[in-house]
Amino acid sequence: MTIKSNSVTIREVAQKAGVSVATVSRYINHNAPISKDVAERLKLVMTELRYVPHAAARQLASQKTRVVGLLLNTLHNDFFVPLLNGIEAVVRKHEYNLVIATYLLGSRDMPPPIGPHNTDGMLVFSDGLSDDDLAALNDRKFPMVLVHRTPPDSLKIPSVTVENKKISFEIVNHLIKIHGRKHIMLLRGPIHQEDSYWRETGYRSALEANGIPFDERLVLNGDFERNTAYKVLNEFITAEKQIPFDAIFTGDDDAAIGVLKALRENGCRVPEDVSVVGFDDLGFSAFLTPPLTTVSAPTEAVGRIAAEQLFSLFDKQSPEGVTLLPTELVIRRSCGCNK
Amino acid sequence: MTIKSNSVTIREVAQKAGVSVATVSRYINHNAPISKDVAERLKLVMTELRYVPHAAARQLASQKTRVVGLLLNTLHNDFFVPLLNGIEAVVRKHEYNLVIATYLLGSRDMPPPIGPHNTDGMLVFSDGLSDDDLAALNDRKFPMVLVHRTPPDSLKIPSVTVENKKISFEIVNHLIKIHGRKHIMLLRGPIHQEDSYWRETGYRSALEANGIPFDERLVLNGDFERNTAYKVLNEFITAEKQIPFDAIFTGDDDAAIGVLKALRENGCRVPEDVSVVGFDDLGFSAFLTPPLTTVSAPTEAVGRIAAEQLFSLFDKQSPEGVTLLPTELVIRRSCGCNK
DNA sequence: TGCAATAATGTAACTGGTTACAGTAACCGG
DNA sequence: CCGGTTACTGTAACCAGTTACATTATTGCA
């Protein structure tokens, strides 16, 4: 390429200030004493020349990218707004950069877009990475923190997530005990997704505890996404042979929106005919029609804590195992209560 | 530093495959012919060694980062979910990485976290950057596309945003003409923010067209954020001297949530006592209590198109000026209509 | 006063790729 | 059979920083 980089280099700064490049580098990184007048001179020269160190050169020489990655499988959920906010705030505080990438598990032909080659460590959300990839990176001592996922047994990777099972038991139990619901549908999240798994487990144990047989036909497969939720439920309702149901545990609030839409369009009243409950307590959930009974999850805190743990890994601190943040029931009107 | 980088280098690959590093590089970049058997050998060796090129080294040598940046002032709005999705999809398609950073205009002491030193170009959302910074970067021919903001007169930077004024006129006009509202409050977005400005302009012209005097006291300052909206409106309502109002144009749907909360808590019925209308038509807006009358904006398309324009700038294509995407009225129940 | 520790700075090797330049071998039309 | 392409490959300079090592000046303390 013949395009000359028009950016100012450290050597120009050094020359103009009458010092060596090493001194300039030390000044930039504050990692060695610099005499006061040299420091002042450098400060002047650097602002005058509008010098900004070339990131790639720094990264190559120092073997540090000052970048953390966030690997997801999707961004299609309002859930990610608080999560991102938590993460971004911490990353910014540490003066790092944040790279976001989605990586679908299907795409095994190409390597993940982020990893040791371009970040110092990363946050892996849910199924952003396969167990194998996780193990390979862990072998190379690449700093990682899992978010909404616990590590495979053999790997010691810190993990931050929320309590799913007990609270799912509670919310389903609430539908049964308080509202007398007996035909409770479960709208699952993605298969094999961990939150989805534990929420289902809680759901099943609530049924069992109340002597209600588990009915496979009342389990729908969603993906924590409102459009899918709408489509799946709509198909279910308009199917030929009707299976009666009187409540839906939607798995997450975003899907609840799709569920409410499908119910409304099919003339089902919420909560009179069908109770609906969600999970996450997103910002809008209190304002839905009707206000959504759900589980409040500290999503921003999850992001914040996960990011903090990643930075503590950078400082060679020991991993903290699984951090399970508490969740709590938020009773509103969509279950049948009349707050 | 004594920590040896444990990553595989191009030289190891070259040696193991019995070729020179130049050949390996050419194979990686597909920019020169490679004999078939060498290509096959390299493919094998690279997967066997799990070789991933060192991003910083590539960047330094090629003067390309393969990274695009997105600079925002905040992430606190569900609006950003579709925007991010649009952007991310395009970035991924081009096999680039996406860096996200928030940069508050107040922080003039430190330079923006992303720029020519670590990206090939960037998307600047709204007030993510000052006019001065914009001009400086533009002088250096740094590729940029503005999102939800038009460039200062003197700068030719492509810009992608949505039509605000005409549609704001229409929605306020609707409140007046159809519902007979006369004391319409405006909950502004951030001062000096462009969407906010044009929405206000549309609001004012609708008042004027209907012979309703503009009343400064009915203008509240928000920031397109639900908590602020709640706080500001709540203070207004509970203030000592009451100023009557019968409608609110909230400026955006996320703020509408805060507005609905404040109204509900103060015993105002929507839409009986007060009409509420928003802007953006976020995923949840159809499901609020009551369903929100709003303006649908093609936010995902904005992200997609802006990103595409950035990539076309990389190819030295000419900028496209201001791209103004159409918006349309979405009438639901919160204005008083009874769909 | 002498000697070690510390402060401040410079020289140059090194990071892991890309690519200009050069060179060899095979191919091709006349 | 010959000069000109074309296909393929290698050598080594270069990108813009960091840092080990060396050097000199200064300070502290016995």
Word description of this protein:
Two copies of one chain form a homodimer. With 339 residues, chain A is α/β, with parallel strands linked by helices. Chain A has eleven helices and twelve strands. In chain A, the strands form three sheets. Chain A has a six-stranded parallel sheet, with helices on one face. In chain A, helix 1 (10-17) crosses helix 2, helix 1 (10-17) crosses helix 3 and helix 7 runs parallel beside helix 8. The N and C termini of chain A lie far apart (68 Å). Chain B binds a DNA duplex (30 and 30 nucleotides) through helix 2 and helix 4.
What characteristic shape of chain A results from the CA principal axes? Answer: elongated
End-to-end separation of chain A: 68 Å
Mean pLDDT across every amino acid position of chain A:
92
β-strand percent of chain A reads 5-15%
- Biggest β-sheet description of chain A: 6 strands, parallel
Rg estimate of chain A, integer Å: 26 Å
Low-confidence stretches of chain A: 1-5
- Secondary-structure element string of chain A: HHHHEHEEHEEHEHEHEHEEHEE
